[in-house]
Amino acid sequence: MDHDLGADPSVLFIGGGGYTLPAKLLSSRPEADAVAVEIDPLITDVVRLHMPRAGETIARTGYDATDGTAARGRLGIVHADGRVYLNEAEGRFDAAVMDAFSSGSVPAHLVTIETYERLRDIVRGPVYVNLIDRPDGPLARGTHAILSSLYAHVVAVEGPTGRNGRGNIVMAASDMPLRPLDRLPEGFRNTRITSARAFTDDRGWVGHR
Q: Would the pTM count as exceeding 0.70?
């Protein structure tokens, strides 16, 4: 993301989690703004109370963006299902980060070609996807197939695997060429994903169930 975006991007995060990524974006780019969509308000409360850096970012610049109106802050927070938000969103963003998890995997309704077609309607730039799977596993292949059907350029890196054989796989997709990374985080490496069927709303990912 550091290489692909300008100084003042507007970035959509589907999945707030620990708010680490939005906090890092806003810290490194003083002119940037973000909207984080997190389904569970309790997660946001935990971050406020127990994660100093992200909590401070929320306290300093966070605001309730549920009604879609801008405020004086730079981090809009929406407590809603990511797919519902995408279907109803009227704003436009320069990039998006798909980082939503449920029971250790990506919710099926957030990893379909219909979801990403809607994402393209409101995001004019690159899309970044974080998921957990085996190297070249079925979720990674289906997600890669979705991105490859919609974007001209797709790259993937994978991190270390745990005892269950699964690890983080991060993909970036864009209509414009993506700049090569100067370096990868420790334990990560570039990877190739084999061809597969793209997930759809009626034939989706069910591996987490």
A: yes
The answer, yes or no, to whether residue 209 has pLDDT greater than 50, is no
Q: Distance (Å, rounded) from C-alpha 127 to C-alpha 104?
A: 21
Q: How many other CB atoms sit within 10 Å of the CB of residue 121? A: 12
Query: In this structure, which amino acid lies at residue 176?
Result: M
The pairs formed by 111-115 with CB atoms below 8 angstroms and a separation of 24 or more are 111/139, 111/142, 111/143, 111/146, 111/199, 111/204, 111/205, 112/146, 112/199, 112/200, 112/201, 112/204, 112/205, 113/146, 113/149, 113/150, 113/198, 113/199, 113/200, 114/200, 114/201, 115/83, 115/86
Mean pLDDT of 163-174: 95
Reduced DSSP (H G I as helix, E B as strand, rest coil) percent helix, strand, coil of the chain, to 5: 30, 25, 45
- Measure Cα distances from 198 to 116, 142, 143 in Å: 11, 5, 7
In order of start, what are the domains of the chain with their CATH numbers? 10-190 (3.40.50.150)
3-class SS of residue 59: helix
The pLDDT tens digits of the residues spanning 19-73 come to 999 999 999 999 999 999 999 999 999 999 999 999 999 999 999 998 766 667 8
Which pair of structure tokens corresponds to residue 72? 């004086």
